[in-house]
Each structure stands twice: as C-alpha cells, then as structure tokens.
Amino acid sequence: MSAKTESQATAENIVIEMKGINKWYGDFHALKNIDLSVREGERIVICGPSGSGKSTLIRCINHLEAHQQGVITVNGTPLDENSKNITQIRREVGMVFQQFNLFPHMTILDNLCFAPVWARNMPRAEAEKTALRYLERVGISEQKDKYPGQLSGGQQQRVAIARSLCMNPSIMLFDEPTSALDPEMIKEVLDVMIELANTGMTMLVVTHEMSFARSVADRVIFMDGGEIVEENTPDAFFDNPKVDRTQQFLSQILTH
Amino acid sequence: MTVEPIIFQPTPASPAPSSKVGAVAWLRANLFGGWKDTVVTIALLAILLVTVPKLIGWMFVRATFLGDADACRLAGGACWPFIVDKFNVLMLGVYPQELGWRPGIAAIALIVLAALTYTNRMRGIVLIVAWAILPFFALIMIGGAFGMREVDQSLWGGLMLSILLALVGVIVSIPLGVMLALGRYYGSPVVKSLCIAFIELLRGVPLITILFMASVMMPLFLPPDLVINNLLRIQIAMILFSAAYMAEVVRGGLQAIPAGQTEASLALGVTRRHTIAFVIVPQALRHVLPPLIGRCIALFKDTSLVIIVGLLDFLGMIKNAALDTSWLGFQAEAYVFAAVVYWSICYSLSLYGRELERRGPSAQKR
After folding, report:
1. Best B268, B287, B364 residue to mutate vs chain A (most A CBs within 10 Å)
2. Among B134, A46, B35, CA closest to B142
3. Which helix (H) or strand (E) is A16 found in, with range?
4. pLDDT tens per residue, range B93-117
5. What interface predicted TM-score (ipTM) does this complex get?
6. % of chain A at pLDDT higher than 70
7. Residues of chain B found within 8 Å of residue A88, distances taken between Cβ atoms
C-alpha cells in the first residue's frame, strides 16, 4: 500500500521531499535516515513516544532545527544554508507550537498583522483585514484588542493558528498543538484543525490525539528512536499495525 | 426517558471575617505581631520621637524665611533666604544670568515632554523621536546657535549641567547598551568578544577614573590640533560607562525571553533582524524596567562626580555657595536643599518606572 502511494506520489504534486535526513545533538543521533515525501493536500499525523524525534523531524522542515545530512526540498526550494531559501520556505510553511508562543507584548490583532507587515510588506490596513477574516474563522474576532495573557489556552492556540494562516501558507506544521491545553479546551482547537483540513491544506501534525488521527489523517507515521518505524493509513495503523513496537505503543496510549 | 439534570447554583460569596480587617487588626499584624515586633516598633518610635521634633524645629519652627544672614544667626534655625539668594547660581552656575531664559525654555520643554510621557498622551515612534530631539534642542538653547549669542561650555553649570549630563547620558546610553547586549548575546564570536571586553573594561573601573582619563589623559593622546572640549569628553565618558551597565541589565532581559518567541517569529518568515527588533528587545526591556530605571537614577546621581574634573554641577555650586563669606555657616541648608532636589528628581523617575510597569501587558492578566 505505502509502496503504491509512493510511486503515485512522484507523478503527483510533491510539496515536501526529505531524503536521507540525519541529525545529531552532540553524540545523540536524533534523526536516522529519514525519507518522507508529502503530497499536496495530504494530512499526515506523526506520533511516537517522547524523545522519538517527531518534533525534531517537523522542525527540520522550516529549519528551526538544522539537519546535518540529507536533502530537504519544500515547494521546489532546496533547504540549505542559504538564508534566502530558508526565509522563503518559512513564509510558505506555517507552524503551530505546543506553547502557542504568541507575542505577549502585542495585542491579538498586532500578533496577526506582525508577519504580513514585516515579512510580506503588506500595508497595515490590508493586513488587518486579513487578520480579522482569520480571527472570525477561528471564532475569536471579538478578542482582537486583548493581550494574549488575557485569553484562555484554547483561545491562544486558535489565535496562533490564525496568526500562521495570515501568511497564507501552503503547508501547516503542528507541533503537539493540544498537549499544553486543559482537557476542556482540546476540542475547540481540534475543531479548527479539522476545519482547516477540510479546506485542503497540507498538514503535518505531531499529536497524541488518536481520534483526530483516525478521522482526519491520510497517513499515520509512527516514530521511535529517531526512525520512522511504521507508515500506514489510519485504519490499518490502528486496527492492524505491522510492527510490534507500534502495537506496544498503541496499547500503552489507547488502553486508558 | 431522559433524566432531568440537577441545576447547579454557585454559593454566594461572603465577606472576610471582620477580626482580620480594620485599623486595630492592621496594627496588630504589622507593628505588634509578637514581642520581637513590639520591641522593634517601640525602639523605632523612641528614635523618631527624639530626632523628628528637633529636625522640624530647625527646618521650620526656628527657621528664617525672610531676612538676611544676621536675622538667621539670631533665630538660630535654618536659613532659607540663603537658598533664595543663591537660587540662580545653583540652577545655572556661572551661566550669564541675563540669558537664563534660554535654559529655562529647555527646562520647560523637558518638563512638558516628561508630563506627556508620564500621562501616556504621547507614545510610540513620536515619543521616541521627541526624546531624541530634546537633547539637541537643549544644547542649542544653552550653547546658542542660529543667531543666539554663544555661551562657552566652561560657563555651563549648576543643576542645568547635572540634568543635561544625565539626560544626554540616558538617551544615548540606553540604545548603546541595547546594541552591546545584542552583540554580546547574538553576535559572532568576534563581535561577542569585543562587546564583552568593552563591558568588562568599563565596569571594572570606577567612574572617577574614567572621568580623569577623559579629562586629563585623553588630551595627551590626541593630536594637538584636535581639540574636543572638556564637557564633551566627560559626557562621552559617562555615556560609555553607563552603556556598559545598561548592556548587562538588558542582557538579563534577553535571557528571560523564551526561545519559543524567536522560533515563532522566525517560523512566520520574519527575518532575524526584525525578530530581534520587534519581538525580543521590546519584551526584554519591559522585563528589566526596574533595574533600567535604577541605572538612570544612578547615572543622574553620578553626575555629581564631575566636580572632580573641574565642572561645577549642582553639587559643585552648592559647595561653592557654602563658601560665600556673607553667608558663612549655612552649608547645612545648602546640603539639605541639594538632598531635596536630588530626591525629588530621582523619586519622579521611580514613579515613572512604576507607572510603566503598571501599564504593561503583564498587568492586564485576567
């Protein structure tokens, strides 16, 4: 099945191509020979135990982490040490963090306008219009003049998603977007992500929300020890995992 | 069949028990909390009872407010006419008195701008530009240009000189300190070492030594035809000294910003330069407002050291005034006046610092 997808993928629009990626932190081998291609509009969920390299993997895609070996190509732009390419890729790839990372000294509206104004040279009025549209979409336009510290965690994460969307990215990376949230607030963030998935956005999501993975993902990737252990469709992944390590992981997170 | 849900009614809030509020409770909690507290309270009250009435007697009851030196000596209390007589000299030094209106206008500009800043009527880029222009305006008014009579810097003195040194010092040393901190924190190894060397060199030497270097030794190194006036050299020395301290304060703020802030901004495609300028530095400065205001206050007080290199600032003029033979014996009044003036200015700075902290987004938590 996965072999078939890959052969099709070359014909279709591949937006992210990772070949032979290796990364070390000092002596620690964090990513081992990662190969991954992502097609346009594909929704991939990456899961695995902590320290398995899943965050590191998606952080390599927008060069928040530098890989030391291998080739990454995003939307046809090679990711190398050329800072122009890096900035170019970052403008096309949005990212949502576990800790939201909103700018606490700016109002919600300023948080959203900041990147379009400074990275795209968009006039302020136009940036505000875009910002309000996205705030509306994530359902918090009435909070636009507040500061991030005045919002709940769920609202902050929705603002963070809207902030990324303001740059009009073609790919969105989510790094455990619901892990820092109170249980009551997880759903409101997942709903926004599901709605985003329905618009056809290419998404790579590191998460432990298995119901999200099952209902939204086209492909689930399981990582352990810096390697991709298993790659499968959600149904096959959850009902019939191929590798014993995957079975063990699933039994640990699904039985309670 | 559905079960009718039980309707939840929150318990109404009740007031705190009355034995924990009110004046008596406050006294008990704060002054007489136990036998140790009681002993300290009584001892301090005793000391205040002995000293305060005497001080008030000298400053107000037995004091002379109108009259001359002889009237003062007769009354035996503080001699305030002495301060009134010397007021102009204390403010301006030996600056030509008939041109005193020019520093006066500069002072009014400073006060108006300070008031606009404090009340938050002026903000953002306009505020920064206004403060950047102010020193130039003050220098033109005091020194004379555009047809106004020029007044040589050797005649500048008094409180005017103290404030000018502090104002220019603060306005230039904060940006310079930020640059040094950024260089030390983000710079390439070479830039980093240069910044560290500069900071450690200036922090490791007393300000007086630096002032001596600037005033006495620098002319020996410079080519003889390059004459930089004494005041400018002193001003530069103070700026560099202050910037080294500011840099360390700001660096503390930079370290307090979580890495996620930089990552979020970079991930949005914002360049590193813009990230530092608009995401990191504003937050860092806000974090370190209290020590930053502290450095401004310290810088203002440090201006009193310029007397060592022959400039007659406010404290210098106080000393001078105390030597006047027609007012001999009243130097205590002069120093009390100096203390009141220094304290008022420093306390205003403190108040402004508190106001800034109160205004920041961190104060608007839910």
Report:
1. B268
2. B134
3. strand A14-25
4. 888 888 888 988 899 999 999 888 8
5. 0.90
6. 95
7. 269
